[in-house]
Amino acid sequence: MDTVTKPEGTPARTTAVKATETARKVRGLVKQMYLGGHEAKAKGIPIAYCMVASQYDEIVRASGVYPVWTENYAGLCAAKRDAERFILKAEGDGYSNVLCGYARVGIGFEGLRRQSGGMPASAPDGGMAAPDMLLGSSGVCDPRFKWYQSMGHYGDIPIHNIDVICPPIDARLAEERDYYVKYQRGQFQNLVDFLEQQTKKKYDMDRLWEVIRISEESRRWWWDAYQLRKAVPCPMPSEDHFNTFVPAYFMMGTPEALAFYKELYQELKVRVDNKVGVIPDEKYRIIWAGGLPPWHTMWTFNYFESQGAVFVIDTSYRPFDPVEVPPHVKDPLEYLAWRTFLRATYRYEKAYKHSGNPEVELLLELVEGYKGDGLVMHASRSCRATTIGQLYLKDMVQKYVPVPCLQLISDLIDVRDYSEAQWKMQIDAFVETVAASKRDRKA
User: Fold this and answer.
1) Closest by alpha carbon to 318, among 346, 338, 341?
2) pTM score, two decimals?
3) pLDDT (tens digit, 9 = 90+) per residue, 288-322?
């Protein structure tokens, strides 16, 4: 049995103090997610390792397979400062220290499990139940397509990779839309065929429609709740968001996720009606404008708040934009294909007419809608997908609105790339700049 323990000097607390009661409930949901995986395994229910934002959530949920979200588990390990042993195992097996931190934790976790013949000792929340299949994805970045293939180094587990479309900004959408939708539907059909193969059961399309219905209702409540964050003072900060996104990305299509977002909306509505903010004196409204959060050091958000700065909205793990699938679509896989296409191209027309970049358009909308006084981005050493282009986006946004921007540098998982002293100096200087900028705009 593996006996590696947490590294010496692990701080007592790495997470942020939450502002809302609903956000505090997520920790229990996460524990139940991983416990549920072990319970499912004991009952003979197949376990699938899954990738976040792959647009196949409802398909997997409706199949009767139990999904385990490996990226979420890496973030959990980082928040508990217990990712290093998994990272070191992956690096010891030849994986680069600039490979995605999520992937290194997942690969290292599997490596230690196979090496020890059982669950790594004291694995956070009991560890991930052993997979019966691996569902990779091209969505967002390339390591997500190769990560699960790399796990074949430790064992022969059935794998299926799905391609998730994202048309280029110069695509002729009116002419090419049907091609993209047809292609994406084919990818979803291939996944259904694979799941039927693995489960030895005919896929239930009626069940899929029901899961889609629940998930769409959940997303509407989530979206509406986040519109309430436009209020001054803001009722919920980004550190809460990096908890409250969990049901949407890892439990979508379940009654529990629907109940959670109804409760979140209701709590935020009460806070807005009673003008209850995150802190007693909200001076500056900051936007989390790019990059994944530093899961190992989430209390950084509270450090901003100690200086009167509140993160009022976020671009990472945000709610998908509400899109309208044409009413003539009666096939659930075609519905999901349309939804994927519309989500990917939601701001393309607006970008054509203005900045030329949909991400710039999103940031401009958030600065205006949420009354942003400044932007903060996190450049993660091991996440090219969310880091490349940050300085370009900053420059483009500042062509249209004079908001200061801070780029913090570390890693989403690996605490070895983090300097507390350096970050505090940067944050102090940034808040001073935001204060001066706000005074100048008022003048």
Assistant:
1) 346
2) 0.94
3) 999 999 999 999 999 999 999 999 999 999 999 99
